[in-house]
Design goal:
Elements (H helix, E strand, L loop, with lengths): L1 E14 L3 E8 L3 E7 L18 E7 L7 E10 L8 H17 L7 H16 L4 H15 L5 E5 L15 E4 L4 E3 L1 H6 L8 E4 L1 H12 L12 H18 L7 H10 L1
Parallel strand pairs: 3-5, 6-8
Antiparallel strand pairs: 1-2, 1-4, 2-3, 4-5, 7-8, 7-9
Helix pairs in contact: 1-2, 1-3, 1-7, 2-3, 3-6, 5-6
The structure holds zinc ion.
């Protein structure tokens, strides 16, 4: 069946002498792979539309029960040129795509995830600061969309709002349920700690709340220290690893860290 859908290019790989195999996240079919025949010939009809991060209009021959479809046409809608202006922006953009590649299932439709992905890349492109916040917010929102939304507003033990109670020391965070335990209950609940339990500083908890509820375009206005950034990275890494078996360290993030050292 010949079908048309909007897509973001996740990655392209060489195939044979002249072709490419390309992974997309599509609005209509979720994550999907296609072969672009002749895409590496100098006179190919695809141009740069098959490069990672491209937002495209894709036409494919989609066959039932196949995991590789034939790409008939791929036209660029947006190339995110301004993401390519900065190595840090590219690293954030690629880490977002890598995360979708690791966590989204093949051909499972999720138009909300497609919109989140597109909205995040547009926000990264437009932003001039705090790029890592987009990657962190995307990790939390993606986990939520895939069924693992943390409950950040009330203590899971006493039920009190975490905004109302003055928190003097670190909160508890149960990775399994995504539940927060207030500082008071956390002190009393020592026996319940163990695998799947970590702590979260009060400022890091506030930032996570903002990451989940603020509009993506205002994510860069949230400011915090580098040490809180490191704590957020570690908390998100633990949370995603706990819930997703195929979660790996993101190569694009590691490459960027090596480059700036
Ligand atoms: Zn409590």
């Amino acid at each position: 069946m010949l079908t048309k859908t909007e897509a973001i290019v996740i990655k392209s790989m060489k195939y044979g002498d002249t072709s490419k195999i390309v992974s997309f996240y599509t609005r209509q079919f979720g994550k999907l792979k296609g072969i672009a025949k002749g895409a590496r010939r100098s006179d190919n009809k695809f141009g740069s539309s098959l490069d990672s991060l491209s937002h495209v209009a894709l036409v494919i021959y989609k066959k039932e029960h196949r995991d590789l479809h034939l790409i008939s046409q791929c036209d660029s809608i947006r190339s995110f040129g301004k993401i390519h202006d900065s190595i840090e922006k590219i690293s954030v953009g690629l880490s977002i795509l890598e995360l979708v590649d690791h966590l989204a299932h093949e051909e499972e439709e999720n138009p909300v995830l497609f919109s989140l992905l597109l909205e995040t890349l547009v926000a990264v492109e437009k932003s001039s600061r705090n790029y890592q916040s987009f990657a962190r917010s995307f990790q939390l929102r993606l986990a939520s969309l895939l069924g693992y939304a943390p409950s950040l507003n009330v203590c899971s033990v006493c039920g009190k709002s975490l905004m109302e109670v003055e928190q003097s020391s670190a909160l508890g965070f149960q990775l399994l349920s995504g539940a927060i335990i207030c500082a008071n209950c956390s002190k009393a609940a020592t026996a319940k700690r163990g695998v799947g339990y970590t702590t979260l500083s009060v400022p890091a908890h506030r930032i996570l709340q903002c990451f989940l509820t603020s509009g993506m375009e205002s994510i860069a206005t949230i400011t915090y220290s580098e040490s809180i950034g490191n704590e957020l990275d570690e908390t998100l890494r633990l949370y995603l690893r706990y819930h997703f078996d195929n979660m790996k360290d993101l190569k694009s993030t590691q490459i960027f860290k090596t480059m700036i050292q």
